[in-house]
Design brief:
The complex is a heterodimer of chains A (515) and B (287).
Chain A (H helix, E strand, L loop, with lengths): L20 E2 L1 E3 L2 E3 L6 E4 L6 E5 L4 H17 L6 H17 L1 H12 L3 H22 L13 E2 L2 E5 L5 H14 L3 E5 L6 H12 L7 E3 L4 H8 L6 E5 L2 H11 L5 E5 L5 E4 L5 H13 L11 E5 L3 H12 L20 H16 L3 E4 L14 E4 L6 H4 L6 E7 L2 H9 L6 E5 L3 H10 L4 E4 L18 E2 L4 H6 L2 E2 L21 H5 L3 H9 L1
Parallel strand pairs in A: 1-5, 7-8, 7-10, 8-9, 10-11, 12-13, 12-17, 13-16, 15-16, 17-18
Antiparallel strand pairs in A: 2-3, 4-5, 6-20, 11-19, 14-15
Chain B lengths: L25 E5 L5 E6 L3 H20 L2 H17 L1 H12 L3 H19 L5 H5 L1 E2 L6 E9 L2 E5 L6 H14 L3 E5 L6 H11 L8 E4 L3 H10 L5 E3 L8 H8 L5 E3 L12 H5 L2 E9 L4
Parallel strand pairs in B: 5-6, 5-8, 6-7, 8-9
Antiparallel strand pairs in B: 1-2, 3-4, 4-10
Classes of the chains: A alpha/beta (515), B alpha/beta (287).
Chain lengths: 515, 287
């Protein structure tokens, strides 16, 4: 064994007892889907883990009907404190079964066990715990006294943080009094189905949460279902646009968490070693499968060479391999499809003239892998500086003045995240003011917390998840009528007369959506 | 013998100036009894685009002004409106066919509403922002910021001045800049409001007013990539679903049409609809 070689330290799979087939979770029970089942594989080995059901249109109908029935019959009549008690139960059950969920997530997603164990699953529990306490305090949510729930929420989530995204969606929806139909991503359905078992253990009333699996067409059917009142989507900007088009003209409330091309700005007075850690955390955390990744490094020209040298040295110590190994830093790319996209954009980077460098890694024989890679000599017009790669690929650009850093950071249609590294607090706050991004990390990166709102500007979407603001996505103000004058202005709803305005337009929009 | 009056030429208001439409087109504005009142400029696609450029250029200064300053500038507009009450009342009476009492009540409500919104400029951040108790050594603060350039289709019904004020004032409070398509049939209040704005302290380009056909102009604003939000409050008679679908291409924030007596009623939510919440994390040293 050489220096920095570690003995294998794989996490045990013994506490996991998976089924060979998983059905849909509708109305409190698992049922067989009526579409064609598909296999979910371990992206680190390409071995099948289980077969997963596909929900067809009739299944989506059933799920929405179950959610509606549960909303009308049970959930909307329950007191806030009782809703909260269910959420507290769920939080505790997630904590109790945390290791099992972490192992399952790592198997199905390919991300390192140290991330699922220390980040994903603890945040799932924290999210439910946080929103549990909100359920009986909604008067303070910021939408006025006695706010109303929306009804049935259709939620479609991505594969990069499967169970964490589920928690971000389900916890605030239930706290606010809505019922849910959730569709996990095709390649990462497993932990959502284990979560369904947790809901059974929690004795959550049947139909309050329904989980349906399948590919994008199942998601589209769900989002376009006339029986849903709320659509929440996290995923690509292209799909987000399509959803925004399809819900246009309807009363469905929409929130979108879409792509990003986050700038990580390093000033010459930054603590360089900390900044290098932050750069690594920004782009190599979760193999770069992070919508808020710091995928563009903007480094002040005077320290460029030093930062890049230190970054390369640090990258050489990253350990790529078995995601279940407790010492692994870089796991598997989630799918062959995603690997192909990362390769395509990286090859394009080289063709456009940027300089490519990858850490020396032994790439395992099976599975989908991509070595941590940086591009230097990148210009703002390069595709690798503009397009979201969603992989462990960093584009390095330089700047001379704060104004140039701000201009380059904002030179993107996205606006999700940004990082600032500097020892000067006044400069950090001034730069933060001017960045058009929803989340800004100063001298840190990729931090998440249930109390902290997360979401984008511009084409990174709209609405916030997390914190008090995250509740607003699932609530509407109490309908008040009366004087239109300023005396009655407090907490007035904006949608008083929307329905009358939209009557007669809906059928037209439904036709358009069908196209 | 009565003195021969001097009629006003009604033009567009873009970037703090009063250009005619680049298209050279005008349309007749008639009183409620069908008498000729004025030839208003019939704004074009290019006028709308010029207005967006002006709004974008003005954004940095307006959004970057202190909240206290923005509040004072907005309040100043109310002061000037108060001084021009008679003119607005006369225009509303001739355009909308209402009596002096009704017209006067509309102007009063418009001025009071402007003052109500002006007072929010240095408060909405406190009400809608948050300090977040995250689990870790971080200072974590969420604040709403202006969305950017907001395109508005002004209410098209009666109450032309009140409708316009109700639509533009809330967008301005947070520091957005505005391109508004005026009430097509009753545009006189809009242009007179532009004269108020031009003589107030509002920087040129912060409010841009285009008169003409909303049916013609709205699609260009809905698809314009430099418009961040679209307020369809007065678009109820247009194919607004199509406008909303177009706006999805650039993921604009869209407010739907409103009709009835409560349309565009004053609300904090109307300010917040054109804001984005920014969350800043800053490390704390471990002492």
């Amino acid at each position: 064994m050489k220096f920095l070689d570690y003995a294998p330290a794989p996490e045990s799979q013994a506490l996991l007892s998976l089924k060979s087939d998983y059905g849909l979770f509708i109305n409190g029970d698992f049922t067989a889907g009526r579409g064609t089942p598909f296999q979910t594989i371990n992206p680190a080995t390409e071995q099948q883990i289980a077969m997963i059901a596909t929900a067809n249109e009739a299944d989506v109908d059933d799920a929405v009907a179950a959610a509606r029935h549960a909303y009308d019959g049970v959930w909307s009549r329950l007191s806030g404190s009782d809703r909260g008690k269910y959420l507290f139960r769920i939080a505790r059950l997630v904590q109790e079964r945390a290791r099992e969920l972490a192992v399952a997530e790592t198997l199905d997603n390919g991300k390192p066990i140290k991330e699922t164990r220390d980040v994903d699953i603890p945040l799932v529990a924290a999210w439910f715990f946080y929103y549990a306490g909100w359920a009986d305090k909604l008067d303070h949510a910021g939408v006025g006294p006695n706010p109303a729930s929306l009804g049935v929420a259709a939620q479609v989530i991505p594969w990069n943080f499967p169970l964490m995204m589920l928690a971000w969606k389900i916890a605030p929806a239930l706290a606010a009094g809505n019922t849910v139909v959730l569709k996990p991503a095709e390649t990462t359905s497993l932990t959502a189905l284990l979560f369904a078992e947790i809901l059974q253990q929690a004795d959550l009333p049947a139909g309050v949460v329904n989980i349906i699996t399948g590919d994008g067409s199942t998601g589209a059917t769900l989002v376009n279902h006339p029986g849903v009142n709320k659509v929440a989507f996290t995923g690509s900007t292209a799909v987000g646009r399509a959803i925004a088009r399809s819900v246009a003209g309807t009363d469905k409330k929409l929130s979108l968490e879409l792509g990003g091309k986050g700038a990580n700005i390093v000033f010459d007075d930054a603590p360089i070693d900390q900044a290098v850690e932050g750069i690594v955390r920004g782009i190599f955390f979760n193999q770069g499968h992070v919508c808020c990744a710091g995928s563009r490094l903007l480094v002040q020209e005077s320290i460029h060479d030093d930062v890049i040298d230190r970054l390369k040295r640090r990258m050489q110590t990253l350990r790529l391999g078995d995601p279940l190994d407790k010492n692994t830093d870089i796991g598997a790319i989630n799918s062959a499809e995603q690997l192909a996209r990362i390769r395509e954009l990286s090859d394009l980077g080289e063709q456009e003239g940027a300089e490519r460098w990858s850490a020396d890694c032994v790439i395992p024989e099976n599975g989908f892998w991509f070595a941590p890679t940086i591009f230097t000599n990148v210009s703002t017009s390069h595709r690798i500086a503009r397009d979201e790669i969603f992989g462990p690929v960093l584009s390095v650009l330089t700047f001379r003045t704060p104004a140039e850093a701000i201009a380059k950071a904002n030179n993107t249609p996205y606006g999700l995240s940004a990082g600032i590294w500097s020892d000067k607090g006044s400069r950090i706050l001034a730069v933060a003011d001017k960045l058009r991004a929803g989340v800004i990390w100063a001298n840190t990166f990729n931090q998440f917390d249930p109390s902290s709102p997360f979401g984008g500007y511009k084409e990174s979407g709209y609405g916030r998840e997390g914190g008090r603001h995250g509740l607003a996505a699932y609530l509407k103000p109490a309908v008040r009528t009366g004087s239109r004058s300023i005396a009655a202005a407090d907490h007035r709803t904006l949608s008083v007369s929307k329905k009358s305005a939209s009557a007669g337009k809906k059928s037209a929009s439904a036709e358009k959506a069908a196209k | 013998m009565n003195r021969l009056a001097i009629p006003k030429t009604y033009k567009l208001y873009i970037g703090g100036k009063f250009p005619r439409s680049e298209s050279g087109r005008v349309y007749e504005v008639l009183s409620h009894t069908g008498d000729f009142l004025a030839n208003a400029a019939k704004g074009s696609r290019k006028d709308a685009r010029d207005a967006v450029v002006a709004a974008r250029n003005a954004l940095g200064g307006w959004a970057g002004a202190t909240a206290y300053n923005r509040g004072q500038v907005l309040y100043r507009i109310a002061e000037l409106l108060e001084g021009r009450r008679a003119q607005f009342i006369a225009e509303i009476m001739s355009c909308e066919g209402v009596n002096a009492a009704v017209a006067s009540a509309q102007v009063d409500e418009a001025i009071d509403r402007w003052v109500w919104y002006a007072g929010w400029a240095d408060k909405y951040v406190q009400v809608a922002g948050n300090a977040n108790p995250v689990s870790g050594p971080f200072f974590n603060l969420s604040v709403p910021e202006p969305t950017g350039v907001v395109a508005i289709i002004a209410p098209q019904g009666t109450e032309s001045l009140l409708g316009l004020v109700s639509a533009i004032a809330p967008a301005l409070v947070a520091g957005n800049t505005v391109v508004v398509v005026a009430n097509e049939n009753a545009p006189l209040s809009a242009i007179s409001l532009a004269e108020v704005l031009a003589t107030s302290d509002v920087p040129g380009g912060v409010v841009n007013i285009v008169t003409g056909s909303p049916t013609e102009i709205a699609p260009w604003l809905a698809t314009h990539a430099d418009v961040n939000a679209l307020d369809l409050v007065g678009a109820g008679d247009l194919d607004w679903v199509e406008l909303q679908i177009s706006a999805a291409d650039t993921l604009k924030r869209v407010l739907p049409p409103e009709t009835g007596a409560d349309a565009a009623a004053p609300a904090l939510n109307r300010i917040l609809a054109f804001t984005e919440v920014k969350t800043v994390w800053h490390t704390k040293a471990i002492l």
